[in-house]
Amino acid sequence: MRRYLGIDIGGTFIKFVYKKGDDIEKGKVYIREIISKNRPDLIVDEIRKIVKKYRPDILGVAVAGLIDKKTGVLTASPNIKPLENFPFKDELENSLKIPVYIENDASLAAYGEYLYGAGKGSEILICLTLGTGLGGGAVINGKLLTGVSGSAMEIGHTTIEMDGLPCHCGRKGCLESYVSSYGLERIYYLYTDQKISSSQIITLANEGDLTAMRSMERFSEYLSVGLMNIVHIFNPDRIVLAGGITENYPAVVDMAVSNLKNIAFHLPFRDLTVKRAELKEFSGAYGALGYAENESR
Ligand SMILES: [Zn+2]
């Protein structure tokens, strides 16, 4: 019986899901300090430890950034700088001596939700991950949409305000510069002149603080414009929203959907369901697992 391991490398944790037959085990390892050391070999070492414990036959890897499909090199990874321009796939295969399948984390979050979560049975599934950044993934008729180079679905870096707020990618007015944790912090700052973290804003909003609630509402308006663009391009039957912000303040999804109803074409809205992710923080790891399993068949 083949054993599979799916791992999701983020800026703070490596999350993993291991599968052998019907047995599934999951966990996470804290890596923020390792990432700040700017040494890709230390990240490979952490992965080797997990692999040594579970001894998978195949490894799937989800990682934030743009991965060149032809070479397995991460050409850009704003939140995991040590891995930028690093031949990640080759290094992992050389070090671990097992086949490695690597894909963008948001794409694999979509795939994970499609196989195991809120996207099951969907024909055209779009998944957005609202976290430090804003990631996007699409699964169309069961197949991941990766693009020719491997960089499709960078929804976070589509423009919604020309000359808008600066984005971490260097452009201006990207959807991510409003709909992400740092986007939320800026919206709150515009109302209050106070810099507090997105998790503090969410806590305040949950306690009924009016300015925090107003910030969440504004955030949801930007989100609904992003959703409208997706609906008009893809006409999906399902959109799944993942990430800490929607998990900890679910009302943001309801507000965005009710605004979406007012601004989108009626026809594609009629056939759309918007759901929150079901696999919580493990969507990407589940996607990496399923991707390794299906690609190696
Ligand atoms: Zn951007």
TrEMBL record:
Transmembrane regions: none
Gene3D superfamilies: 3.30.420.40
Coiled-coil segments: none
Position of the signal peptide: none
Alphabetical list of Pfam families matching this protein: ROK
Highest taxon listed in the record's lineage: Bacteria
Similarity annotation: Belongs to the ROK (NagC/XylR) family.
Entries under PANTHER family matching the protein: BIFUNCTIONAL UDP-N-ACETYLGLUCOSAMINE 2-EPIMERASE_N-ACETYLMANNOSAMINE KINASE, ROK (REPRESSOR, ORF, KINASE) FAMILY
Protein name in the entry: Xylose repressor
Naturally occurring in which organism (per UniProt): Persephonella marina (strain DSM 14350 / EX-H1)
